[in-house]
Amino acid sequence: MGKIIAVVNQKGGVGKTTTVINLAAALVEANYKVLIVDIDPQGNATSGCGLQKSQQETIYDILINESDIKKVIKTSPNEKIDIIASNMNLAGTEVELVNTKKREFILKEQLDKVKDKYDYVFIDCPPAVNILTINALTAANTVLIPMQCEYYALEGLSQLVQTIGLVKKSTNPKLVLEGILFTMYDTRTNLSNQVVKEVETHFSNHVYKTKITRSVRLSEAPSFGMSCISYDGRSKGAEQYRQLSKEFIERNS
Ligand SMILES: Nc1ncnc2c1ncn2[C@@H]1O[C@H](COP(=O)(O)OP(=O)(O)OP(=O)(O)O)[C@@H](O)[C@H]1O
Questions:
Q1: What is the 3-state secondary structure (H, E, C) of the chain?
Q2: 38 lines ligand 1 (CB under 6 A)
Q3: How far is the CA of 102 from the centre of ligand 1 (A)?
Q4: Which pLDDT tens digits describe the chain residue by residue (253 residues)?
Q5: Where are the domains of the chain?
Q6: Residue 248's closest CA among 17, 12, 26, 14?
Q7: Is the CATH number of domain 3-252 3.40.50.300?
Q8: Which domain of life is it from (predicted)?
Q9: Distance 8 CA to ligand 1 centre (A)
Q10: Whose alpha carbon is nearest atom 6 of ligand 1?
């Protein structure tokens, strides 16, 4: 099948990487084949999966040096998730690709060579709308948006929807929304509940019923280079991402 999902939000620190790693880990636990593509120069998905950022070849080599994508794929030591690593080399891509023709399509052309080996491919995007994010949105079938329950998140969401609209008009007409996931959710605050209500009014079918609350285990796991599912499989964070994976699968079946 090889469905490609770009995990996107131009706002930083909203839980993109945490969602990519833990949703992927929950799907692998349920016997699905998953590839993570780290396209963020911060390389947090790379280190969070227990891989060194100083890999010999990374997504940079795929985008800039036309390296063979099959040779760049590594496997995370704990969860056995396939992953294409990233590091700071990627930070200059915008400038390096400036004279490259069809530069928005590089990732798509490369992923087309391997996607059918997987059930799902998740692309962890940087917190910006730049050539890396546009490559991800051009390669993707769908967009998954993690968001926090903050007032400004609503503004950010409408900007993101506009960006998706622009990509649909230019490089990827078939791109659709996979879902909106509330992260670091706090049921006790009125603001959280108001933001959820507002988003559900506009995107009712697309908002995941599963909400990810704040959890210490989820924030600790990356420093051990593993998902929360591997780090503490019985924790609340692990259970919530398993629940999300079930909802994700149901929607995709
Ligand atoms: N549910 C949660 N509970 C507690 N901490 C969380 C939760 N989700 C994410 N975090 C923490 O919040 C921080 C930001 O999360 P994360 O790196 O996943 O966001 P991001 O959107 O990928 O960030 P960036 O935009 O910088 O790439 C990290 O320190 C992470 O461990």
A1: CCEEEEECCCCCCCCHHHHHHHHHHHHHHCCCCEEEEECCCCCHHHHHCCCCCCCCCCHHHHHHCCCCHHHHCEECCCCCCEEECCCHHHHHHHHHCCCCCCHHHHHHHHHCCCHHHCCEEEEECCCCCCHHHHHHHHHCCEEEEEEECCHHHHHHHHHHHHHHHHHHHHCCCCCEEEEEEEECECCCCHHHHHHHHHHHHHHHHHECCCCCECCHHHHHHHHHCCCHHHHCCCCHHHHHHHHHHHHHHHHHC
A2: no
A3: 32
A4: 799 999 999 999 999 999 999 999 999 999 999 999 999 999 999 999 999 988 789 999 999 998 999 999 999 999 999 999 999 999 988 888 888 889 999 999 999 999 999 999 999 999 999 999 999 999 999 999 999 988 888 888 999 999 999 999 999 999 999 999 999 998 888 888 899 999 999 888 899 999 999 999 999 999 999 999 999 999 999 999 999 999 999 999 9
A5: 3-252
A6: 26
A7: yes
A8: Bacteria
A9: 13
A10: 219
Token look-up 């706090």 returns 186
